[in-house]
Amino acid sequence: MGASGRLALFLGIVLSVWTLFHVYAFQRAFSIPAVVRAVPFAARVSVFALLWLSYPLGRVLARAAPGALARGVELFGAVWMGVLFLAFASLLVADVVTGFGKLWPKGTVPARSAALAVAGVLSVVAVVQAARGPRVVRHEVNVLSLPGGRTELKVVQLSDLHLGTLLGERWLGQRVAEVNALAPDLVVVTGDLVDSEVGPVGPLAPGLRSLRAPLGVWGVTGNHEFYAGLERCLAVYEVAGIRTLRDGWAEVAPGLVLTGVDDLTARRQLGLDGHTLDRAFAGVPKNAVIVHLSHSPLLVREAAARGARLMLSGHTHGGQLWPFVYLSAIPYPFQAGRYEVDGMTLAVSRGTGTWGPPMRLFFRSEIVEIILHT
């Protein structure tokens, strides 16, 4: 199957899941007599169609007719996506507790009513949590040596900004100011700078040139760069002043090497060449301190085996909306935070922005600050 066929299959699966979630949530919600009495059948059908269309329509409008209307529809659809997921998860718990209405029939209606109430409360909490913006998460990592006999070097990581129609100029300006306030020596952007459309991101790219770091701003691609159009996204990276590592390396200071790979998730989905680490580490100077950048936290032990001392990733968003973390952990066992793997430190960012729903449950977005010590 070619790349276009794989992408079509992926979109088909996504829309099928989207539909399944709607059918399940609506069937359970309208099994509650009070809800049935309050909402006529014709209204149920109309609401189902409106909510099902909201996010896909918002995406289409964002591409075809960008503006306030498109942004409003997309924002509504994105929030509904998060509410739907939380409703689905809560109703599923209610079904398990009641044996899907078979083991405890009398408890079915109260359990489903409580599930919808819980989903509503969690949705409000998640919106507020995301609106608070990212927190700074700090990790300290010991290395054998640093350039120029230094004893400390600061790296700041941005990941999964997902810039576009929902996260725009004002939001980005705040993030740039926060990074600069940390006075980093080096800034890295570990993919998914772009959300789904390159167009809205182009005007934002120059704002990233305000990032200040003596050793530069470096980055790698994420899966969304592949979805949105890789070459166009790379042009945005260039305008933004981000030097992109594509299965390669650069010595950013004597004895300090960055290696970076194009996103491993997108390569797998699109059936692209997977011998990426061989190229990324080929010819790296001996005894260098290697910091490896990979959007997806995959091939972790392989990077450690090639001499990486620190690996920086993102992609998972830490699940973003609990309990999605349990599904995300199946393909990505390194979900969020710090791990020690075969002598290498892996730091997986929860993401600086949000994908889809502008919502986060229990954990805020992150700007990651790494202090390298000798």
Explain the overall architecture.
The chain is α/β, with parallel strands linked by helices. It has 2 domains: 3-131, no CATH class; 135-373, 4-Layer Sandwich (Purple Acid Phosphatase, chain A, domain 2). It contains 13 helices and 12 strands. It has helices at residues 3-29, 33-38, 41-64, 68-98, 108-131, 169-181, 205-208, 223-228, 230-239, 264-270, 276-281, 300-305, 324-328; strands at residues 135-142, 152-158, 186-190, 217-220, 243-244, 248-253, 256-260, 289-293, 308-313, 337-341, 344-348, 366-373. The strands form 2 sheets. Strands 1-12-2-3-4-5 form a 6-stranded mixed beta sheet, covered by helices on one side. It has a 6-stranded mixed beta sheet with strand order 6-7-8-9-11-10. Helix 12 links the parallel strand 8 (289-293) and strand 9. The longest helix has 31 residues, at 68-98. The relative contact order is 0.14.
